Amino acid sequence: MTESYVKKLAAILLDAITDKDPLVQEQVCGALCALGEAAPEEALGACEEYLRQHEKLAHPYRTMILRAVEVLVSSHIGELDKAEARAVTLLASSEMTRAKELVCDWQRAASDVLVAVGKRFVSTVMEELLSKFQPGALPHCSVVQTLANLAASNVFGMVPFLTSILSTMLPMLGMAKHDAMRVAFCCALQHFSESILEYLADLDQAPDPTVRKDTFAADMLSAYDILFNHWLQSREAKLRLAVVEALGPMSHLLPGEKLEEQLPKLLPGVLALYKKHAETFHVSKSLGQILEAAVSVGSRTLEPQLDSLLAALHAQICVPVESSSPLVVSNQKEVLRCFTVLARCAPDRLLAFLLPKLDTSGERTRLGTLQVVRHVINSAASQMEVKKPFILSSMRLPLLDTNPKVKRAVVQVISAMAHHGYLEQPGGEAMVEYIVQQCALPPETEVYSCF
After folding, report:
1. Which helix (H) or strand (E) holds 131?
2. What is the mean pLDDT of residues 7-29?
3. Domain residue extents for the chain
4. Distance between alpha carbon 206 and the CA centroid of its chain, in Å?
5. Span 103-126, pLDDT tens digits
6. Where is the MROH2B-like N-terminal HEAT-repeats domain (predicted)?
7. Rounded Cα distance, 381 and 344, in Å
8. SS (H, E, C) 235-287
9. Given pLDDT bands bounded at 50, 70 and 90, which one contains residue 4?
10. 336 φψ region: left (φ > 0), alpha (ψ -120 to 50), beta (else)
11. Do residues 47 and 32 touch, judged by C-beta distance below 8 A?
């Protein structure tokens, strides 16, 4: 297709984007993307020109065009030259910050364009973003969110910028009075921390192998103080969750002695959120990260808090997973991850807490406990090796339980035991007999349907 033909066709499509039918708008967006497959440079140019020439075009339509631009940039990032990348960057930045108030879809679409460009032209995008991220003044909320998303999408490209970004951002935290701004800063700190940890984990492939964790320790400690001691006390649930999501990865970047000093306050503070939120996935995920950080520095202050930790985690694992919400299932996985950390650092305390609960007749307690036992048999096999006789003997009462759900859970525990050499131990014979008995049940029984 000739350039003039593409421009004409793109202009016709762009004029049709204001159709009142949302389906037509979606089809126009798809057609622009299809046109861009054949002539990406011309299609991008047409979208840029249209947005610049139609200043009064309403934001829902601008959003649709920006979505098409993001698809085109993502699909053809390798074909963009620096001049085109800069033009798209300036356009998206202008669109993203045009409205001072939050216009989520529009600003998110523009931000997504910047993130797409930043996967290859991170310096170009950062030059523009940093011009709107100056010391002494709160930036546009979307600028902070875009920095966060860039850190997540281009780790190697963004981490070298983070030292200067953090030094500029820290004074801004005290200036942020609105929850939306605070949530954006929390999101940024979360993604910055995750990116730093990923960068350090792949240091042999990183562009600058001299980067060290302690480079960020002082800044993270300052940010931690504001998030934990001030923002976590907010009555706004969304902000509390944003804070706790950030604290998990941030805990790995705190100086070891400071983390140790904070744990007696940090862990109860996070556990208290279980009572304040119905959706507890983010709390459990953060808790797991904090526990891993504590173990990695050889924490001694973890031990006095084990009882409250185990009780809170056990209560979570005993919640029925009957909800259709994927977050409920994800929460259970994160809770089990916490149990793995505790099983590896304090196996005696864990089993002293867990195994007596198998003698409890309550269905939920027994099911939850069996689930944890099965999990730690698999995930902390070396620590459980010398505990095999105790674990086997604790199964005496669950083997007698006639509840079909409990029977299924018992079979799953025995399956895990079989993989780790439990059945060769004294008491293992009873487990094999139990499996044989269940296999001998007639097909029409209700129990049979559970396996």
Report:
1. helix 122-131
2. 89
3. 1-94, 133-275
4. 23
5. 889 999 999 999 999 999 999 999
6. 32-251
7. 9
8. CCHHHHHHHHHHHHHHHCCCCHHHHHHHHHHHHHHHHHHHHCCCCCHHHHHHH
9. confident
10. alpha
11. yes
